[in-house]
Amino acid sequence: MGKKQGFLIIAIFILSLDLRPPITSIGPLMTQIQHALHMNSLTASLLTAIPVFCMGVFAPLTSTVGDRMGIDRAIFACMALIGLATLLRFFVHASPLLLISAFLAGVGIAVIGPLLSGFIKEHFPDRAAAIIGIYSVGIGVGATVSAGLSIPLVSTLHSWQASLGTWTVLAALGLVIWVPVLVADRGFRDEEQAKGKLPWNVGRAWLLLIAFGLQSGIYYSVTTWLAPQAEQTGYSAAGAGVVLTTFSIIQMFSSLVIPMLVHRSNKRTPWLMACAVFSIIGLALCAMPLAMIGPWIADVFLGIGLGGLFPILLILPLDEASTGDEASRWTAMMQCGGYIMSGVVPMLAGAIEDATGSYHQSFWLLVALAAGLFVCSYFLKPRPQQMTDRVR
């Protein structure tokens, strides 16, 4: 690996760190924000719901933005938009500005995700699986660190606005490290491929969309309801938080290791199906009325299963594409529907708990969705031409 590729890997990792803090830094401060801005629960929930839905609704913009600006310049512009969104939070004294910042961050994240997948396909065609693993770990680290440091930053800076705005530093670092990429590549774009369309008429693309939506919906449901479920099992609020943190750590580790193993084995489907099975087992453990040890065992299975599913599903659109531009379009379509689904599933799981008074039935719903993901994984077997290309 040359110095240029090593630098690009570092740049990708740093950019990926900033793709979740605008969302995950909100949760620990939600009560303070509600009291300060006099927001009811429904309005406050929009602070995290808006970016997630934006990640689905605006993902198709990747095609237009990438065509007009070139992928490198478009990535820079999206990182600047995310930085602007977090910078605005220093000056929030009313809910509309905070909601606007959530919207801007969501649009930037929605477009930059598929663009980075295309960038990886273009620059690392033979190592895409391993680089996707690094990209996934960066997302996980950014999410975990921002959530974990939100309250300590309030104590240090004496302001929840400053705590939220601090993550502008990550965006600024991303912009700085991306400048040499712009200078070196001038934005890669094949004019003959410009103005391409998302593969809405391709059945396999729809299968990827459904699989990603199921995975994403399960993941966001687990991150939303795993801690409350642990509390129902008998854990204190602090203990339930540790259960969720343990899941996040295992999930991050799996996001790095499993893509590397996938890259070495040169096979996708067996790993995808195995991760789906691990997820089914973990969700079933949450759905059953087990003793206090249950959540810890579930952490292991869920961390491995969901930690592997996300990067593998990011790899699959790259297998379908021959260029970075095409990879961005496949990824944009997959994430468009997937993130919209991910916004609905946690709400449905919550509604089931409201109706039954227990999270057990909510997790049985997730077991059913994971079983559907297992079936989708079987039908995502590579075509003969793809296997030939990998061997080469």
Automatic annotation (TrEMBL):
GO MF annotations for this entry? transmembrane transporter activity
Highest taxon of source: Bacteria
| Record keyword Cell division present | no
User: Does the keyword section mention Transmembrane?
Assistant: yes
The subcellular localization recorded is: Cell membrane
What are the annotated GO cellular component locations?
plasma membrane
Transmembrane stretches, start-end? 41-62, 74-92, 98-116, 128-152, 164-184, 205-222, 234-258, 270-290, 296-318, 330-351, 363-380
One Pfam annotation reads MFS_1
Keywords, alphabetical: Membrane, Transmembrane, Transmembrane helix, Transport
Per the record, membrane topology reads: Multi-pass membrane protein
Domain (Major facilitator superfamily (MFS) profile) ranges: 4-385
Q: Which PANTHER family match?
A: 2-NITROIMIDAZOLE TRANSPORTER, PTHR23523
Task: Kindly provide the name given to this protein in its UniProt entry.
Answer: CP family cyanate transporter-like MFS transporter
